[in-house]
């Protein structure tokens, strides 16, 4: 089975040696997204929730470039530099997903690229 590299200008360009996503068959492996604004490659301005919204916008753009949508995500990994933001992530996530929700992990870590407070990656399964 061949792999297809997914790339879109509607999400931040990769800042390292990786692709925005890789599609193998009907499965899309989404690289981590931090809250960079694609046009400026700078962190979105605002509070923690603004960062979470931007991450979901970036993931949405990559999913759409792969031929799917955010609703196709079956596994979502969330990395937080402060686990006290867990409830805020749930609030914002409820604006982007309907039930049944994807499987998910929320992991506390000490640091993220560019001083981001949140990063997410995932796996999507397309119809």
UniProtKB/TrEMBL annotation:
On the tree of life, the source organism's domain of life is Bacteria
Pfam families, per database record: Ribonuc_L-PSP
Recorded hits in InterPro entries, A to Z, give: RidA (IPR006056), RidA_CS (IPR019897), RutC-like_sf (IPR035959), YjgF/YER057c/UK114 (IPR006175)
A single Gene Ontology CC annotation of this entry is: cytosol
| UniProt-listed PROSITE patterns | UPF0076 (PS01094)
- What GO annotations for molecular function exist for this entry? deaminase activity
Similarity comment text for this entry: Belongs to the RutC family.
Designated name of the protein: Reactive intermediate/imine deaminase
Taxonomic lineage is:
Bacteria, Pseudomonadati, Pseudomonadota, Gammaproteobacteria, Oceanospirillales
């Amino acid at each position: 089975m061949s792999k297809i590299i997914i790339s879109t200008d509607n999400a931040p360009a990769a800042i390292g040696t990786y692709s925005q996503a890789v599609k193998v068959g009907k499965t899309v492996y989404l690289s981590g997204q931090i809250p960079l604004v694609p046009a400026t490659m700078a962190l979105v301005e605002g509070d923690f929730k603004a960062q979470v919204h931007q991450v979901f916008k970036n993931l949405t753009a990559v999913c759409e470039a792969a031929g799917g949508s955010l609703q196709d995500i079956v596994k979502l990994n969330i990395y937080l530099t402060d686990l006290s933001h867990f409830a805020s992530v749930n609030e914002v996530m409820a604006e982007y997903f309907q039930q049944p929700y994807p499987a998910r992990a929320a992991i506390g870590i000490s640091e993220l690229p560019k001083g981001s407070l949140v990063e997410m990656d995932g796996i999507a399964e397309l119809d």
